[in-house]
Amino acid sequence: MLPPTGGGIKLSASVSPCDWAPMSRESEIQASSLPGVDRVLRWPRVAAIIERHGRDIVLEAVREALGESRERLTSGGGGIETPGEQDLGDAVEARVEALLAPSLRRVFNLTGTVLHTNLGRAVLPPEAIAAMAEAARGPVNLEYDLQSGRRGDRASHVAKWITRLCGAEAALVVNNNAAAVLLVLNTLALRKEVAVSRGELIEIGGSFRLPDIMARAGSKLVEVGTTNRTHARDYSDAINARTALLMKVHTSNYVVEGFSAAVEESVLARMAAAHGLALLVDLGSGTLVDLERYGLPPEPTVGAVIGAGADVVTFSGDKLLGGPQAGIIAGRADLVARIKRNPMTRALRVDKMTLAALGAVLRLYADPARLAARLPALAAMTRTAEDIRRAAERMAPVMQAYLGEGWRVAIAECMSQVGSGALPVGRLPSMALKLVPAVPKRSSGRALRALAGVLRALPVPVIGRVHDGALWLDLRCLDDETGFTSQLGADAVP
Ligand SMILES: *Cc1c(COP(=O)(O)O)cnc(C)c1O
To answer: Nearest residue CA, atom 2 of ligand 1?
Structure first.
């Protein structure tokens, strides 16, 4: 299972504590010669583990370790020696550590996808981390108005900043954007019809499908237009007494190109107003600043969509915004007030840590000129290929020494993507370490999978991408070069 030669790779923890030397044949008798649980718990070696981790978890580990030994002795057909204090102690310790190891761990995201949903999307700035820690540490005025001494509104801590940054009258924050869409539809279009273009009936990762959300919200989806072309009259033809909303959805992870047509927000907003309806826009990523000023492909800003007349806009907190997981609802004050009164709002509300982090991130937007330097998500997206190449030149020799002769490490151009359905077709020129096994290409698959497994087994797992006969490590998101190289056996960046 090791990559070819495995030359410089050090595989720690590959020796199981249960690898006892083979010897005896009288397995039944041996199994009964295993020490009892109480005796093992009194061994000084095990008592020391209890001292550190408490009795309950050690008891569980001792039972499991003894059970496994018994199993091995009885089914091993002899040839296995009864484990002694040292071996059993090692086995217990390893078990306790495995039981207590956190499941959620830091990883290096070298996939080339900046906002990777499976890897937790946006990395938060220090200001947000500090705010979260502060909120977690003790009581806060979450729903308490310090001026009046009365009950306050939890949304108020961020609403002021959201409205200021996008020009909406009011705002509300819920668990994520899927929840935001569900809540808005359930409030404004329960048992009513919602007109959506056939070109915008999206499915995005993690089983968010617009038609399903719509059904769960209790709204009736009315498809208008065609897959590639939808016109204003398609919407107006669909309007009847049961219609509640016109809805526009950002086609986050695809584009309709070629002979295509869609209707602008401003046109739909006027149409909705003329019929006493509201226009809902699910922006998905929803950026608060013009990304072009940072050299990124353009995206409609929340402010532009509000300015075009949308009555309610929904977007994510952890996509282009660069904050914590959250769903933001911004729009007309009367509609946001109705949404707040929906009992579902209580079920979808965010906690104090999310609000603390989101507030800190939004405050960074007060100074857009320095945003790219202060917001990690934007910093990663705007990092130049030249800067990433210099990182690759520092990392390549370390990686080559780690892998040994069985692999060739090259510095190669690649393309990163923003991810999470943001800027679906925008690609960011980047640089990667391209790891190629010294075996014929047609048999490289196994070696690549094995190496990917070895990198995932590092203390801070390294996640790359297997593509075209190589394992690619896109260095765009590598923000801790020293941590990366030190776990490859090198002391520091050369
Ligand atoms: C990402 C996305 C969602 C879901 O947002 P989450 O914050 O992941 O729940 C909904 N609609 C669109 C258009 C999206 O791009």
So the answer is: 284
Pocket lining: 176 vs ligand 1, CB cutoff 6 Å: yes
The amino acid sitting at 399 is M
pTM value is 0.89
Q: Is 175 in the pocket of ligand 1 (CB under 6 A)?
A: no
Tell how far the Cα of 329 is from the centroid of ligand 1, in angstroms.
12
Q: What is the mean pLDDT of residues 405-412?
A: 96
Q: How far apart are the first and last CA of the chain?
A: 31
Tell me the helices (H) and strands (E) count for the chain, helix number first.
20, 17
Residue nearest to atom 12 of ligand 1 (CA): 284
Q: Whose CA is nearest to atom 3 of ligand 1?
A: 284
Q: How far is the CA of 382 from the centre of ligand 1 (A)?
A: 22
Res. 80: pLDDT tops 80 = no
Instruction: List residues bridging with 462 in a β-sheet.
Output: 108
User: What does DSSP say about strands 193-197 and 312-316: parallel, antiparallel, or unpaired?
Assistant: unpaired
- Encoded tokens for 203: 């499915």
398, pLDDT greater than 80: yes
Please list, in sequence order, all residues whose beta carbon lies within 8 angstroms of the beta carbon of residue 389, skipping any fewer than 6 positions away. Answer: 411, 431
Question: How many residues are given for the chain?
Answer: 494
**Alpha carbon distance 76, 19 (integer Å):** 12
Rounded to whole angstroms, the Cα distance separating 174 from 351 reads 9
Sheet holding 422-437, edge to edge: 407-419, 422-437, 470-474, 465-467
Amino acid occupying residue 290: D
